[in-house]
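Structure tokens please, single chain.
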Amino acid sequence: MVDIVRSNKELNIWEALIPLLVLIGLLAFNVFVYGDDALSGSNQFVLLIGAAVAAIVGFANKVSYQDMIDEIADNLKSTTGAILILLMVGSLAGTWLISGVIPSMIYYGLMLLKPAIFLPATLVICAIISIATGSSWTTSATVGIALIGIGKAMGVPVGMVAGAAISGAYFGDKMSPLSDTTNLAAAMAGSELFDHIRYMALTTIPSITITLIVFTIISLTQSTSGSSDTQVILSAIDESFFISPWLFMVPAVVIFMIIRKTKPLIALLAGSLLGGLFALIFQPGIVATIGGAESLDLISGYKGVMNALTVDVAVETSNAELNDLFSSGGMAGMLGTIWLIMCAMAFGGVMDAIGALSRISSALLSLAKSIFGLFASTVASCLALNVTASDQYLSIVVSGKMFQKAFKERGLAPVNLSRTLEDSGTVTSVLVPWNTCGAYQASVLGVPVMDYFIYAIFNYISPFMTLIFAALKIKIKMIVQK
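Here you go.
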């Protein structure tokens, strides 16, 4: 991200707020009209409208058109690394699907289900799948639905099951390098992806541990009936894929590279190529089908792996609930997020150029007299935007842009900001009924937000955990001067 947020002395706080208020209003109306589909493109255009309104305010305050364009260009340039990582993440997800890596994780995860530990098992399974896929939405819409059905058969209240599933899904969404919000938070704060994930673990692990303990206690005290028969789902996976523990070598190699501090692009590229190789070895029939042939040969093998890397692919099973999970968009599937980033950078660039972000930040930061106050102001900003803008992406983008300079001026490393954005922006979005995430989860799981709210323990503990760490000055990373 750019290092400087411009200041325009002629701009007052109300003029600075006009584009933001217009953006929030338009986004709220857009979500009302489009619902979950608002992320498909209309929100992106609304961001451009917000940029246009900001430009009008800028023209009225004698800011030149060229200054705005230059600032947008600087913003876009700063996201180059994040965009390349997102493309590589899409390719990795594709080859991990057709190689059987993701199906194997789901298969062995479902085998953990036992009635006495159903809720903590639900939490763990959704966490594993969400880490593997990088998507809380996909996890909830597939395995989450299956777990809701199993929970009903066992007599477990659906609010509890939904809360456990969402807690696990959002833990994985936060911690997975495949997640768009994880990449977005790192990009907005200007931190390295894997540095961000490692630093985020400091608050995320305690939060998920508390959540796991609570669900274990609830599960042990909750009377259940029925059974946790998942044989139909397991059979459907087994019929479609060759399932083997050997497939875990692929994520193991990537994890090893990450631990060894390999550059993210290199680790993700290696994981993508290794996934393609394992697909050819373990799932030749699937690769051939995706390559448009009945049997595997050089051409169908090349096309099958290349299609998984780049475009939409899907593996059909006998279980309709699993089919959505066993699909991937490849690199093309990441274009929506990239499009969002580009439009957000246009809005942020114009807001920078006219001095609006500087003026708004100054007003917010006037309340932050200490390092804790700075963290608290960031958390409050993310929560407010989740409620008003109804979108977790905007919560991360706007808050990240506004507070980036302030964190730097206090000598705080960018990972402090990126972690706070995730702890308060990403996970709390699902707790707001009219937020795209809350509306989506309630619709897919068939459980109203108010029913699962109290059981989405991980989601509302996370912002408090980041504030506790800030208040007690635990592991606050400072900028190291070279």
